[in-house]
Design the sequence.
């Protein structure tokens, strides 16, 4: 099983600032099979990025993903008020699939 | 519009069993792999199980292997999760999930989620 470790656990930022979220895998992720989701209370998760760097449908370009191997990053270039949420990475190329423990982006 | 509607969640005693169902609509069900993902209230997401388009390939988290069984009925466009030997740590909101790519495999990112059905295991 690939263990995903996300850091930091919490990111306190102001609207307009840049957010950098990290996801580290315990072993190399096959074919960049890494996704990022945004999760708000009372809602199902929303797919942002798949294949480490490809945008899901309708996702604004202030969200971007990068990385390969064991180190991956989600960047939000300028935080909008609706971006404050919990973000999860997800490895889906192997079985069992796994999620990171999440990074909470909160308003400073 | 893709719709995934879970049902079957309940309060059950440790050691008991439950069968979750997911009724789907708005897409060609047998083109897609499907998964179950759970969330403990106030905690993170955990992938539970996945199944390919015709049911001949499945996968399970180590925490549920041997206790849970995923299945599907393409004629009814429905997904199921049979949960046996339930434990307190199985208490969670269980989401039915469709993968993004209509290749039939469940080894892909998830683009559609149901609202979830709540399972509570307690004596």
Sequence:
């Amino acid at each position: 099983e690939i263990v995903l470790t996300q850091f930091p656990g919490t990111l306190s930022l102001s609207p307009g600032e840049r957010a950098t979220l990290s996801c580290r895998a315990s072993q190399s992720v096959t074919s960049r099979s890494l996704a990022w989701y945004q999760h708000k209370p009372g809602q199902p998760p929303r797919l942002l990025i798949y294949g480490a760097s490809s945008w899901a449908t309708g996702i604004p370009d202030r969200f971007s993903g990068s990385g390969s191997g064991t180190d991956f990053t989600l960047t939000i270039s300028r935080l909008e008020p609706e971006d404050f949420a919990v973000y999860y990475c997800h490895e889906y190329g192997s079985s069992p699939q796994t999620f990171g423990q999440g990074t909470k982006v909160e308003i400073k | 519009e893709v719709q995934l509607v879970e049902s079957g969640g309940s309060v059950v005693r440790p050691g008991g069993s439950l069968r979750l169902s997911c009724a789907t609509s708005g897409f060609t069900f047998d083109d897609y792999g499907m998964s179950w993902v759970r969330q403990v209230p106030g905690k993170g997401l955990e992938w539970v199980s996945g199944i390919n388009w015709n049911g001949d390939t499945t996968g399970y988290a180590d925490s549920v292997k041997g206790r849970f069984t995923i299945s599907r009925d393409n004629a009814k466009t429905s997904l199921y999760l049979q949960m046996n030997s339930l434990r307190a740590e199985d208490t969670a909101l269980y989401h039915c999930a469709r993968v993004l790519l209509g290749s039939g495999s469940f080894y892909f990112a998830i683009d559609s989620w149901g609202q979830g059905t709540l399972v509570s295991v307690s004596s």
